[in-house]
Amino acid sequence: MGRGGQQTDRITGTNGRFSAYTWEEVQKHTKYGDQWIVVERKVYNVSQWVKKHPGGLRILGHYAGEDATEAFTAFHPDLQLVRKYMKPLLIGELEASEPSLDRQKNAALVEDFRALRERLEAEGCFKAQPLFFFLHLSHILLLEAIALMMVWYLGTGWINTAIVAVLLGTAQSQAGWLQHDFGHLSVFKTSRWNHLVHKFVIGHLKGASAGWWNHRHFQHHAKPNVFKKDPDVNMLSAFVVGTVQPVEYGVKKIKHLPYNHQHKYFFFIGPPLLIPVYFQFQIFHNMISHGLWVDLAWCISYYVRYFLCYTQFYGVFWSVILFNFVRFLESHWFVWVTQMSHIPMDIDYEKHQDWLSMQLVATCNIEQSAFNDWFSGHLNFQIEHHLFPTMPRHNYWRAAPHVRALCAKYGVKYQEKTLYGAFADIVRSLEKSGELWLDAYLNK
């Protein structure tokens, strides 16, 4: 098992007991090909398992040399099953004199958070209501059916086509929130059914890839707003975000774009282009380069269905135009909703914080209302979603008061904004980061 495999003679002694390790020893194994993690005080060599990990290659590496207990609990609804798969990777445990947590994390806070999770589980907050998700799927299919019927009966005039595009864009956005539910294993009791329906929703209803989404999105949840670990803050040098990166770029005289104007050009290259251009290319490249042929088949089924439905009315050329306009509308919706809870928050390099503290500095909530719940797919409860990613979204409101109380107890800031205020903060934060970059570029 890589370099860690060379420790085999230390795994068990003549009495058959596992070896004991210090945190100092564990933290030496953080490089690709030599990665150890700690879960519930047990030490695991995941050097080779990272290639097979369903959550992707990188996510385990993000916790190499660390205590991953909280992340392990957050991501896996069936802990007993996962522990069985982990047994062959077990190489030892922490020495009795070693603390359970690494890097001076607040043990009392972590213990209280675990108690809160147990309380929410006992109250049924992790149990899904099948009717909720059935109705959500039904309204997506209804929107698509209405759009097709409008073209069938009312023709392809400009006004009718504009309405059809809005209906299809709404259906795509809502399907995006629905696939997110299945991707987080928060609907069915078994992972198998969640994965299967996830492929159907993201593949057949949206034309995207479940594998691509899993590997990208779980990294975001594992280390939100952490440079080099969260792909969502990899702006490909088009933007500088937070307060650290702009100064770094400025000091190094990096100027791929005039970042002091990024809050202006964001409107032209951010929301309009993310899904139609960047994601579209990345999804197909990822499926082909990684051999995700099942995902590709589901994805193709979406395109076949779309063009069979609309080329008979619009022809190939105008069907392509309509398709891209729908993606254009969906992209705006997606970017504003997903970034309102993250871009204005703390964005920095790894700080090795406990789970609750790490998530709270990187996320904020938006006020609850029937519209906000629907519009954002309940991601207005971004804090609760990040703390408990397998919790069905219709239960976030039940968890929120308990989380708020725990944060107040330990002085952890729990932010909640209006929808408009959250949107405005995206632009304000980009403007602030741009100013930091300009000052460093000119004066440092």
TrEMBL record:
Residues 18-95 form the Cytochrome b5 heme-binding domain. GO terms for cellular component: membrane. The keyword Glycosyltransferase does not apply. Keywords: Fatty acid biosynthesis, Fatty acid metabolism, Lipid biosynthesis, Lipid metabolism, Membrane, Oxidoreductase, Transmembrane, Transmembrane helix. The keyword Lipid metabolism applies. It is found in: Membrane. It comes from the Eukaryota. Pathway: Lipid metabolism; polyunsaturated fatty acid biosynthesis. PROSITE patterns: CYTOCHROME_B5_2. It is a multi-pass membrane protein. InterPro entries: Cyt_B5-like_heme/steroid-bd (IPR001199), Cyt_B5-like_heme/steroid_sf (IPR036400), FA_desaturase_dom (IPR005804), Fatty_acid_desaturase (IPR012171). Its main location: membrane. GO terms for biological process: fatty acid biosynthetic process. Pfam families: Cyt-b5, FA_desaturase. GO terms for molecular function: oxidoreductase activity, acting on paired donors, with oxidation of a pair of donors resulting in the reduction of molecular oxygen to two molecules of water. The chain crosses the membrane at residues 265-283, 303-326. Belongs to the fatty acid desaturase type 1 family. This is Cytochrome b5 heme-binding domain-containing protein. It comes from Culter alburnus (Topmouth culter). The lineage of its organism: Eukaryota, Metazoa, Chordata, Craniata, Vertebrata.
